[in-house]
Specification:
- This protein is an alpha/beta fold.
- The protein has a domain of 109 residues: 2-Layer Sandwich (GMP Synthetase, Chain A, domain 3), CATH 3.30.300.30.
- Helix content is 31%, strand content 22%.
- Strands 5-4-17-16-18-19-20 form a 7-stranded mixed sheet, sandwiched between helices. The protein has a 5-stranded parallel sheet with strand order 7-6-8-11-12, sandwiched between helices. It has a 4-stranded antiparallel sheet with strand order 21-22-24-25.
- The longest helix has 17 residues.
- The relative contact order is 0.10.
- The model has no long low-confidence stretch (mean pLDDT 94).
- It binds adenosine-5'-monophosphate-propyl ester (PRX).
- Adenosine-5'-monophosphate-propyl ester binds next to α12, β20, β24 and β25.
């Protein structure tokens, strides 16, 4: 078993040929701006930037502001022009087992066609286009077609409900929606367009819907609004003359949960985002674009899918695997079978997946040839040492560094990671700031902590892929991220720095939960619950869970008489399902308890810490600040029932 001081040095061969050297690291830390100036050369600019960082109006930083470029050109055409048109961009594996191999030349042509189709539908620079799609190649094509036109894509995870989709479409004022008739789940088709139809009842601004035919099931097509992808994209020319945009031109908005009920629209722009993501993809994973096969096992509906499934790998001219299905369909060895089939050399996934594989047993991956692997990535939540060691041993055969990458939707790019050629791996620690960034752990007063004590993670210098604001709400951007420690970016995570100077992440310190690497706000689920006619009040907490990291536990007070005569179990199941329908199945509480009271402080605040202790069956901490300490006994009695 590993303890806090266990470390694994990089494999000798990797260290000898690593992309990123210690010398480069030292130079980056000594002069970050010079470093980021140099990194801008990863991109093909129409006009090269002369200024790297504009700090004149903090926290509204600008990167490479006088440079101009086109994001899609950087992902596509330039590789074709360089003679790499035949290189595979994606090995796509569909859920029911259908496959496509898509080269850079083919992807470029498809994106040009889609850009022409969007233009025909009136989409232009600065517009917002919502994408609600399964993990099919058209999702990537649609994102890049938007980018090519300078329109922002707003990808909404296809597991989100119609209501969640409508809220995001309205907040961002999207005029066009791209979706599919249905999606496959464990080999079976499930409807998707129906949710869009429901959402569009509440989105007056949407004028067109483009529908990809994926499952072939019957869908209603609204006359004058809905068109088929194969019709409208199919008839276009594969040539498209792209325009160039300033580096700070918006690239996309991605919604994520904050500590209030209203999701935040994180705005990313073009130049800095592409520099930051492509650099980290190359350095954190030691990517060799000519020979590696890279697989980010994340959905495009999340930021990991945006940064490391779409933009960074394509800017870097890499070959990726894109997988539509689940890890256990049609069998529990599916991932390992795909690694064997495509000779994947870099795998990037979440600890929750690893813990699930641990439960299924090491005999499952042992049946496959995983010798192509050379780097293993982890993202989304702290990787516990047990999962780290299992991953390293059973998947990496003790020969692949485990690169734990800490970052956020807001940061756009990796911010903390052990660069595989130059840093040792330490199970459970995310290790060091990415070169050119500055990250610290501070106490309540903002003083730096380096003595293994717990504090808050802050980023005290701007970085290229940082969010630029929250869509339509500059003030919330300032308040949420830059006010707790004035002038510094507050990430919302607890952390510590150990005696070796390595950073350990300790989970969120706000009301945000992390369930299977997905960010969910307690308030959002509480609002969904009180939206049900039976519910008077609710409190939601994240409780430790062996597989999902955290699990949702809801405490609910019913309205007097509202659910009388209904079986207690039915009440619980109905309310759990209600949350799943209102938000998403990933938000369905693992446990829901009907209680007579909630523990509150004298100022009326719900004591979540106490509820967390109750949910995790822990000794209860201090209850003296409660208005009424008997509440706890009441809840415990109810839980026992
Ligand atoms: O709490 C941290 C956790 O996930 C949060 C960001 O969530 P999201 O924006 O959805 O992005 C997930 C994918 C980047 C962070 O505030 N988190 C993410 N990666 C790690 C992590 N916690 C610990 N270690 C990580 N490697």
């Amino acid at each position: 078993m590993a303890d806090d001081s266990t470390t694994f040095p990089p494999p000798a061969e990797l260290a000898a040929n690593a992309n990123f050297t210690k010398d480069m690291y030292d130079r980056a830390q000594a002069d970050p701006l010079a470093f980021w100036t140099e990194q801008a050369n990863r991109l093909s600019w129409a006009t090269a930037p002369t200024q790297t960082l504009d700090e004149s109006n903090p926290p509204f930083y600008k990167w490479y502001a006088d440079g101009t470029l086109n994001a899609a050109y950087n992902c596509l055409d330039r590789h074709v022009e360089a003679g790499n048109g035949d290189r595979v961009a994606f090995y796509w594996e569909g859920d029911p087992g259908d496959t496509r191999t898509i080269t850079y030349a083919q992807l470029t042509e498809e994106v040009c066609k889609a850009a022409n189709a969007l233009t025909e539908l009136g989409v232009k620079s600065g517009d917002r286009v919502a994408l609600y799609l399964p993990m099919i190649p058209e999702a990537v094509v649609a994102m890049l077609a938007c980018a090519r036109l300078g329109a922002m894509h707003v990808v909404v995870f296809a597991g989100f409900s119609a209501d969640a989709l409508a809220a995001r479409i309205n907040d961002c004022d999207c005029q066009v929606v791209i979706t599919a008739d249905g999606q496959y789940r464990r080999g079976k088709p499930a409807p998707l367009k129906a949710a869009v139809d429901k959402a569009l009842e509440h989105t007056p601004g949407v004028r067109s819907t483009i529908v990809v035919q994926r499952t072939g099931e019957d869908v209603a097509m609204a006359e004058g609004r809905d068109v088929w992808w194969h019709d409208v994209v199919g008839r276009q020319s594969g040539e498209h003359k792209y325009e160039v945009f300033p580096a700070e031109h918006p690239l996309y908005v991605m919604y994520t949960s904050g500590s209030t009920g209203k999701p935040k629209g994180i705005l990313h722009t073009t130049g800095g985002y592409l520099v930051g993501t492509s650099f980290t993809h190359w350095a954190s994973f030691d990517l060799k674009a000519e020979t590696d096969v890279f697989w980010t096992a994340a959905d495009i509906g999340w930021v990991t899918g945006h940064s490391y499934l779409v933009y960074a790998p394509l800017v870097n001219g890499a070959t990726s695997v894109m997988y539509e299905g689940t890890p256990d369909s049609p069998h529990q060895g599916r991932w390992w079978e795909l690694i064997d089939k495509y000779k994947v050399s870099i795998l990037y996934c979440a600890p929750t997946a690893i813990r699930t594989f641990m439960k299924w047993g090491e005999q499952v991956p042992a049946k496959y040839d995983l010798s192509s692997l050379r780097v293993l990535g982890s993202v989304g939540e702290p990787i516990n040492p047990e999962a780290y060691l299992w991953y390293r041993h059973n998947i990496g055969h003790d020969n692949c560094p485990v690169v734990d990458t800490w970052w956020q939707t807001e940061t756009g790019m990796h911010m903390i990671a052990p660069l595989p050629g130059i840093e040792n791996g330490k199970p459970g620690a995310a290790m060091r700031p990415i070169p050119g960034t500055s990250i610290k752990v501070v106490n309540d007063e903002g003083h730096e902590l380096t003595d293994d004590s717990t504090g808050y993670l802050i980023i005290d210098k701007p970085w290229p892929a940082m969010l630029r604001t929250l869509w339509g709400d500059d003030q919330r951007y300032v308040d949420t991220y830059w006010s707790r420690f004035p002038g510094k970016y507050f990430a919302g995570d607890g952390a510590k720095v150990d005696a070796d100077g390595d950073i350990w992440l300790l989970g969120r310190v706000d009301d945000v939960m992390n369930v299977s690497g997905h960010r969910l706000s307690t308030t959002e689920i509480e609002s969904a619950l009180v939206g049900h006619p039976w519910v008077a009040e609710s409190a939601v907490v994240g409780a430790a869970d062996e597989t999902t990291g955290q699990a949702i536990v809801a405490f609910v007070i019913l309205r007097g008489g509202a659910a009388d005569g209904i079986d207690a179990d039915e009440v619980i199941q109905t309310l759990r399902t209600h949350v799943a329908q209102e938000i998403s199945p990933i938000a369905r509480p693992r446990q829901l308890m009907v209680v007579p009271e909630l523990p509150k402080t004298r100022s009326g605040k719900i004591m979540r810490r106490l509820l967390r202790d109750l949910a995790e069956n822990r000794e209860l901490g201090d209850v003296t600040t409660l208005t009424d300490a008997t509440v706890v006994t009441l809840i415990q009695d109810n839980m026992r029932k």
